[in-house]
């Protein structure tokens, strides 16, 4: 039966589903004897028992925290079971978790528009499903309402002393005099409870959920009652929720903008924002950010659930803490080769399974220098067009690293100063692939698609191009002697950005290590300061993708090192929708002041604002990097990015989360098993 769309966005039904202690659950599914026992997953790193990355709720009750190392956790909870993350290529291998996350997504995606927000989080737009239910089988007409739905925490619900919890939930869901928004939420409660049970049944994973009228509120709610519970934010409860919510707990306010609100305007809670007029906020933070702040103070957010089940980017990273810090180019190259290999494996399976191609390769690293006169200097991130072929990714990643290192060390590099030579140490490395596009539909094979491009010289050796983008590293390597042919075949013969480093004498100054090449193709990612500024992107453009840094000249040069996406750039069926592009955030770390928007409603205006400020800057689009990627990046980098990407996982508005003391519904589905 066709259903009329609600007129106001308040009538949307959005859910945020978040898996409980996800990696632990994945490990417990592998080893069921661990279920119900205090358990933690530790990083691949034996120092002090390894760093904890996921902690079960039983362990949390004993005081174990994610910030601890294995030994500390043992001290706090002697019975704790420590499981090491799977390892491949000398580093954590998160494939199992990624695949487990996909299992969940494929179940949830059947219910409505589904957006995979991270390795273990999903947004769902259940508006259509809720409306259908309201029209066809409204809650009050149901013979019974599922127990799981009746365990929902509905914010603002009025209960008399002695009221039965589930009865009051039933009453709320079935109220005949409820307004349409609440009625739709009531349906959402039932749908989400059903979905969570289905996820549990099919994957054995429990999850928690938030149900509200927009993404922002749903996300806030999902962390409020964990594990294995759901929390609902009716329209009437929004203001109360926000009034006491610490400002930094709000999505996208965990970073610089949140700090500025605290220090510059004395704002402590989101509710404090209400004292400021929209104009005042605009005066401080610009028109769009001001409006955005004004809106979020009132629980208004126009952010749509994106229909996106696949990650926006892939990444592979590793940290080298303390004595393990890398200090030679050959060591760095060794690790970049491993990381690139892993990255390429994922790019290959994305290509094979989803027919998607990434176009930008980015290198991030964290470092420090001996005799660091400028201790705050960040190791710059660099990116370049992504070339398919594992050796190419390895080569380009290493080139990017060397470019970044040269910039990091400054014009005098590691030249001896006085008697001592300045040296560097790398404490974290990561490579990521972003700007992922679909191979246009109707293209049965990528090879055929490439061949159909008239601007592309065909490969002289039949099958070479296929191998060039082939799914196995070996296949691409087998083509390596065809390098120039394949490069040209994959790239249109137009221009390319090339940075020439003119730093004097740098090559000779890298200790006794490899020479740093003078020239390579790369683009600078403006990531050199801590000024984490959040912007939506230039709509669909790479406006200003050229940055000059001192001592560097950018020149146009035909070097045949284009990315695959160049081939697609004129293709009208480019898969990234305008809306999606608009909603991305671009980080420009060279800006003076934080500015942010997640709402589509004013993104184009904001784009302009940002564009004006950043005419010649080159930022990379944070929105193109899937948040799950950050789980894999070195912690230093995670910290930097999480502050604005994934600000807070536990926005609990003063309520305690995660102590497991609350009734935990399906969390108790699995009783502890005897070991
Ligand atoms: P989270 O959803 O942040 O946490 P969680 O699922 O472990 O626990 P909660 O029930 O409180 O949501 O992270 C999902 C997984 O991502 C987590 O199980 C392990 C991994 N992860 C890291 O590897 N490093 C990190 O710093 C964080 C925050 C998570």
UniProtKB/TrEMBL annotation:
Region annotated Disordered, chain positions: 475-515, 531-614, 642-675
Location, primary (coarse class): nucleus
KW Iron-sulfur (keyword) present: no
Domain UmuC, residue spans: 14-254
BP GO terms, sorted: DNA repair; error-prone translesion synthesis; response to UV
Protein name from the UniProt record: DNA polymerase eta
Similarity field: Belongs to the DNA polymerase type-Y family.
Uppermost EC category: transferase
Record PANTHER family: DNA POLYMERASE ETA
Pfam families: IMS, IMS_C, POLH-Rev1_HhH
One CC-aspect GO term: replication fork
Originating gene: LOC108848997
Residue stretches of biased makeup (Basic and acidic residues): 605-614
Single Gene Ontology MF annotation: metal ion binding
Catalytic activity: DNA(n) + a 2'-deoxyribonucleoside 5'-triphosphate = DNA(n+1) + diphosphate
Cross-referenced PROSITE patterns: UMUC
Biological source species: Raphanus sativus (Radish)
SUPFAM superfamilies: DNA/RNA polymerases, Lesion bypass DNA polymerase (Y-family), little finger domain
């Amino acid at each position: 039966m066709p259903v009329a769309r609600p007129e106001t966005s308040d009538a949307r039904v959005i859910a945020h589903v978040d898996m409980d202690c996800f990696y632990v659950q994945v490990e417990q599914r592998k080893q069921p004897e661990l279920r119900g026992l205090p358990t933690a997953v530790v990083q691949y790193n034996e120092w002090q028992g390894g760093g904890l990355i996921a902690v079960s709720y039983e362990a949390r009750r004993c005081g174990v925290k994610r910030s601890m190392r294995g030994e500390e956790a043992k001290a706090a909870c002697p019975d704790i079971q420590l499981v090491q993350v799977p390892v491949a290529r000398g580093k954590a291998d998160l494939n199992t978790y990624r695949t487990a996350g996909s299992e969940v997504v494929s179940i949830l995606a059947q219910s409505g528009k589904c957006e995979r927000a991270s390795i273990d989080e999903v947004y769902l737009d259940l508006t259509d499903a809720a409306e259908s239910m309201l029209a066809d089988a409204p809650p009050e007409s149901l013979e019974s309402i599922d127990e799981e739905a009746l365990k929902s925490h509905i914010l603002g619900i009025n209960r008399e002393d002695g009221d039965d919890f589930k009865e009051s939930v039933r009453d709320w869901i079935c109220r005949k005099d409820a307004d349409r928004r609440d009625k739709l939420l009531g349906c959402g409660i039932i749908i989400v409870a059903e979905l969570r049970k289905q996820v549990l049944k099919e994957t054995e994973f429990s999850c928690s959920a938030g149900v509200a009228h927009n993404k922002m509120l749903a996300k806030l709610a999902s962390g409020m009652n964990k594990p294995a519970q759901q929390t609902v934010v009716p329209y009437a409860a929004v203001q109360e929720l926000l009034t006491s919510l610490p400002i930094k707990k709000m999505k996208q306010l965990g970073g610089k903008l949140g700090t500025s609100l605290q220090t510059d305007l004395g704002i402590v809670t989101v509710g404090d924002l209400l004292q400021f007029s929209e104009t005042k906020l605009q005066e401080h933070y610009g028109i769009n950010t001001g409006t955005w702040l004004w809106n979020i103070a009132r629980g208004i957010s126009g952010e749509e659930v994106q229909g996106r089940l696949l990650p926006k980017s892939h990444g592979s990273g590793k940290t080298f803490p303390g004595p393990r810090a890398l200090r030679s180019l050959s060591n760095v190259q060794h690790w970049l080769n491993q990381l690139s290999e892993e990255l390429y494996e994922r790019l290959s399976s994305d290509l094979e399974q989803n027919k998607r191609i990434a176009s930008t390769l980015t290198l991030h690293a964290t470092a420090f220098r001996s005799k660091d006169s400028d201790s705050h200097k960040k190791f710059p991130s660099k990116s370049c067009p992504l070339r398919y072929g594992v050796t190419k990714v390895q080569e380009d990643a290493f080139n990017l690293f060397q470019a970044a290192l040269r910039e990091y060390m400054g014009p005098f590099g590691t030249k001896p100063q006085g008697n001592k030579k300045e040296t560097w140490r790398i404490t974290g490395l990561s490579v990521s692939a972003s700007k992922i596009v679909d191979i246009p539909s109707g293209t049965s094979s990528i090879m055929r698609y490439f061949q159909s491009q008239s601007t592309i010289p065909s490969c002289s050796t039949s099958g070479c191009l296929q191998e060039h983008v082939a799914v196995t590293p070996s296949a691409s390597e087998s083509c390596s002697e065809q390098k120039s042919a394949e490069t040209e075949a994959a790239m249109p013969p137009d221009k390319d950005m090339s940075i020439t480093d003119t730093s004097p004498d740098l090559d000779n100054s890298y200790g006794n290590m490899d020479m740093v090449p003078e020239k390579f193709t790369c683009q600078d990612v403006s990531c050199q300061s801590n000024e984490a500024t959040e912007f939506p992107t230039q709509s669909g453009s790479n406006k200003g993708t050229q940055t000059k840094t001192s001592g560097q000249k950018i020149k146009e040069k035909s070097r045949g090192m284009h990315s695959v996406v160049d081939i697609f750039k004129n293709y009208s069926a480019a898969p990234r929708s305008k809306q999606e592009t608009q909603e991305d955030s671009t980080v420009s770390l060279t800006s003076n002041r934080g500015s942010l928007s997640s709402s589509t409603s004013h993104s184009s205006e904001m784009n302009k604002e940002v564009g004006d400020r950043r005419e010649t800057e080159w930022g990379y689009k944070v929105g193109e990097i899937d948040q799950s990627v950050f789980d894999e990046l070195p912690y230093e980098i995670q910290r930097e990015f999480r502050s604005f990407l994934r600000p807070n996982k536990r926005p609990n508005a003063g309520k305690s989360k995660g102590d497991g003391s609350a009734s935990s519904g399906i969390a108790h589905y699995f009783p502890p098993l005897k070991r």
